[in-house]
Fold this protein.
Amino acid sequence: MAKSQKPAAEKAGNPKIESARGKLGVMIPGMGAVATTFVAGVEAVRRGLASPIGSLTQMGTIRLGKRTEGRFPKIKEFVPLAALDDLVFTGWDPFDDDMYTAARKAGVLERDLLDQVKPFLSSVEPRPAVFDRNYVKKLDGHHVKKGKNKMELAEQVRADIRDFKKSSGASRLITMWCGSTEIFLEPTAAHQSVKAFEKAMQQNDEAVAPSMIYAYASLMEGVPFANGAPNLTVDLPVMHELSRKNEAPICGKDFKTGQTLMKTILAPGFKARLLGLNGWFSTNILGNRDGEVLDDPGSFKTKEESKLSVLEHILQPDLYPELYDKFSHVVRINYYPPRGDNKEGWDNIDIFGWLGYPMQIKVDFLCRDSILAAPIVLDLVLFLDLAKRTSELSGRGIQEWLSFYFKSPMTVPGLYPEHDLFIQLMKLKNTLRHLKGEELITHLGLEYYD
Ligand SMILES: NC(=O)c1ccc[n+]([C@@H]2O[C@H](COP(=O)([O-])OP(=O)(O)OC[C@H]3O[C@@H](n4cnc5c(N)ncnc54)[C@H](O)[C@@H]3O)[C@@H](O)[C@H]2O)c1
């Protein structure tokens, strides 16, 4: 190995990042298709049965210094990340299926692979959930916690967290929401401060959704929280306050997979070449439980808001009114059981070029939702843990550098989110370079011609 490619751990003096030694406990509210595909996948990779394809932390490299220096370490060698062997798991779900049974029902991974990791998967059983049908109308699970108010439920989740830490021997924890999409909610007075939120929980205020109870409990325990759904959950002043105060980083919302991933790849290309847009019609058919939940108008509205915001932000109609003013953007999700987790996303894109001449692009993406989401979950777990161990990041609250993974990235209030996948990747990698005292890469490159 060249001297410059030494693993990060071997490099001298990096006082800012604590070591990743010890077990990392991953706690997952929502043990459905995404969660089981992620956990089964980690175990399959650990046992050498499959490769972690799609995961930046496992397969990605990072260029350091000038192109001529030839320094391209793997990301996992450049920054100290938890090893896959050190991950331990627990979760919550309103259905009491263990992870093997839940994975079989989700129908994402083949039985042959699942059977090879069966003893491990069967050992992960859900804890009773904080669940309320008013927030996810299409589900009716009975494996749920009982309490006289929402504060009591939060206390029970906190007790679960402490119990898991002790019983698993984990030195650090992460909470990763892989639960269903809740009904559309907007911030209210109850979300504006910790004090107001705690009072609202005592009073069983309907502004407090179950996902917020897990988030509150995690942040109170100093545990980072990532939100894979478009729910409001941590995108609230109360959670920002708790996250900063308790040095428990947060990020979200809504994993960027499938159709929105394609949008954030294609739209920056149109803008780069100054091609105009008249309209973008997107429709999906999917048949998994997520699709069933999204069949409810309340849950769909939450998803729709998340999916719609992407194009406006990338195309910047304010700066390019001639190209992007008033384009029509329609998103549909249709629940169609025969497809299971294998979604089909169709896009019809009406663009225009030189002298205004119209053209059309059709994209038909036959994708697998949970296969695209699982590596995102893994990367978020490892990067959030890195953030927690990094003095410069742990007290900052929102981790905007993780926008790369989300349809609706979180930012501080007043700052517009960055949706362009390539800018997001540069932001992520430059953050890692910055943490390790490496030069940021600007791609200027004039010095090669001096
Ligand atoms: N798969 C993707 O590509 C993708 C992309 C973006 C976002 N998401 C979001 O990720 C989430 C998970 O997706 P999925 O395909 O695994 O869905 P899923 O329906 O298979 O799993 C969700 C699980 O959450 C459980 N749940 C619901 N409310 C809960 C609560 N209050 N506490 C604990 N568990 C609860 C459900 O019982 C279910 O087992 C969904 O919100 C989905 O919208 C998925």
Summary: The pocket of nicotinamide-adenine-dinucleotide is lined by residues 29-35, 92-95, 106, 129-131, 136, 139, 141, 178-181, 210, 228-229, 254-255, 257-258, 288-290, 293, 369-370, 372-373 (CB under 6 Å).
